[in-house]
Amino acid sequence: MSEAYREMWENLNLDLAAHDGLLSVLGKFYGDIYMSQQGRLKGMEYLDFVLSEVHGLRIKELQDAKARGRKIVGTFCVFVPEELALAVDAVQVGLCAGADAGREAAETLVPRNTCALIKSFIGFKLARLCPYTESCDLIVGETTCDGKKKAYEAFAEHAPMHIMEVPQTKTEAARALWKAEVLRYMGKLEDLTGKKVTAENLAAAIKTVNARRRALQRLNGLRAARPAPISGRDVLLINQVSFYDDPVRFTGAINTLCDQLEERIKAGEGVAPADAPRVMLSGCPMAVPNWKLPYVIESSGAVIVGEESCIGTRNTRDLTDESGRTLEQMIDALCDRYMKIDCACFTPNAERLDNVESMARDLKVDGVIQYALMFCQPYAHEGIKVERRLTAGGIPSMSLETDYSMEDVEQLKTRVEAFLETVR
Amino acid sequence: MILGIDIGSRSIEVVGMAGGEVVEKRRAPTTFNPVAQLRALLDGLSARRAVATGYGRKLVQDLDLGYPVETITEIKAHGLGAAHHFPEGRTVLDIGGQDTKAISLLPGGRVGKFEMNDRCAAGTGKFLEYTAQIFQIPVQEFGLYALGGDEPPIINSMCTVFAETEATSLMAQGVRPENIALGLHLSIARRTTNMLQRVGLVFPLIFVGGVAHNPCMRRLLAEQTGTVEGQTLLVPAEPDMTGALGAALWCRSLVQG
How far is Cα B41 from Cα B24, in angstroms, rounded to an integer? Predict the structure, then answer.
């Protein structure tokens, strides 16, 4: 795809040589991890295409949208309400944060003991490698952890930032703070786009985003089948793509895929044998193209049947109530929906323990693998609690801590294989 | 004959079984050419099936030895091997060349919970080998040497490189080298006991792997865990053959179906 898009990348001021390098690594990585899979669904061709054009056609679409006066909003977190951006006809995209890129440059802005995800988004910006970041008219950060909070201060020197304060508790006062932040963000979007959020456009946006969540819920429901009809790698990819693809087109593609899944389940077909160990992932988000651990797990003979993660069920489990008629009612419905997110930044966060356990039971898993990015305090802390809860419930689990580098793949393999030996 | 093959980072062990008995034991250093080392070790052995373990387990599978080769992880292998020596054992500690593993055992040598050191070789045989060099002592004699100490300084660095720096500055302060050696052993024993507690340390504890040969490590481990060697702390005669033995036992169970 390189030649056709060169001029566009040049206009976005990307470092073309380094960007070529990134794309060729990404292409090879994708070939090894995705295209090598047996018995994939026809519907995955859409995802393959979207991913092959991740820095091409989709960026072209964003540029075309900008030319027509639409604004592009970049985000890093499931707390930023996409409904508001859609209501003012902006395009919301999740930004690149899943690959080791520009690390040395990033370490001039943030301490070395910072998680790989934060270093990645800063590295992508400083190394001029992410056409999404470069396309953004506004980038929205949030206060979900100390690392991100302080990193956004440094990032603001390089990009147009707006920070939403996410509360740390779920009290009435916290809910009031969150509502104030949602309204302040709404004002920011209205200033940016020159458009007003109305009951009409917000109702439509709520429906659009809910429809995408329903499609992903449907997909997750179908995975409970035995044998598992789709690989965990593919579902992770679908979740990753949901953050930057056009929501309506994406929803259609996923529903088509789900139709195929239903047929496959009816025929009793799976991507892995019926007795393959079923594993659920739980913990930190895996931003595109972070496929390391899912690949290690599935190439060890297991199949991943759930992702309890922001790039997974934490983003799709709860819908926004659609019964509101006035703008005020809809804003309240949005606030309520987003306050249900069981992010490890909350204290206490007991509902997450319930959610992890019930998800593991619904999906009939043989074991849970907890995944934490190195230096991610919130999820590392909760990992201890989650493990206790699962052990008490008789569900085997294991915790792994890693980052985006490949140097520990063999050690991870040994641990994963040993864990699978214990649950088989 | 059936074989258990353990390709670790420092050494390769082979255990052959026939008629339910161990009939062959061989070992060689891994070196940078493990394939050639293994072929030399297997010379003259006619086997019909093998199970490979250790970080080089996939390597064995790709060798085309002329008989089927399955793989199991070193965690499962050490659980099986240790339980074979001591069926009453409840926890296993393996300190090998670059890995330390703590394993809680279920009946029959099955693995309950396990913990492993992270990506670096802190607190493993490699750490001892490296720090022994500071004293210009072969690693095999390092334990005896350390037993000559009586007042170990606290050494906090588990990073091999930093531990050397710390040991060097202790020497500059005039601390007796035997005490520094004892302090280095103690730092491993502490860290390892911590790992054992994370899998729920229940006795008897079985200590295997090459480092179980080290008398200072055995004594300190007994002190740190509150065990008595020969009673609640059990060490087989050839602790470094445990992984290969476990692999051979698994091979036997596969043959028997």
Answer: 11
> Which among A391, A346, A344 has a CA at the least distance from the CA of A115?
A344
Res. B166 pLDDT band, cuts 50 70 90: confident
DSSP for residue A35: I
CATH number given to A2-202: 3.40.50.11890
Q: Looking at the structure, do residues B166 and B94 belong to the same domain, yes or no?
A: yes
For residues B94 and B221, membership in a common domain is answered with yes
pLDDT beyond 70 at A5: yes
- pTM, 2 dp: 0.93
Q: Report yes or no: B52 at the A interface, CB cutoff 8 Å.
A: no
- Burial of B21-34, coded b for 16+ CB within 10 Å and e otherwise, reads ebeeebbeebeeeb
Closest CA in chain A for residue B110: A422
Our CA-based measurement puts residue B23 at a distance from the nearest CA of chain A, in whole angstroms, of: 28
- Residues B231, B181, single domain; the answer is yes
Residue in chain B closest to A420 (alpha carbons) equals B73
pLDDT digits (tens, 9 = 90+) for B208-228: 999 999 999 999 999 999 999
Q: At what angle do helices A16-30 and A44-52 cross, to 10 degrees?
A: 160
Mean pLDDT of chain A: 96
CA-to-CA distance for B209 and B227, rounded, in angstroms? Answer: 18
CA–CA distances in Å: residue A275 to residues A394, A413, B67: 19, 20, 26
Q: What is the pLDDT of residues A98-115, one digit of tens each?
A: 999 999 999 999 999 999
Per-residue pLDDT at B119 exceeds 80: no
Complex ipTM value: 0.90
| CATH code for the domain of B206 | 3.30.420.40
The partner residues of B206 in beta bridges, in order of sequence, read: B92, B234
| Domain segments of chain A as ranges | 2-202
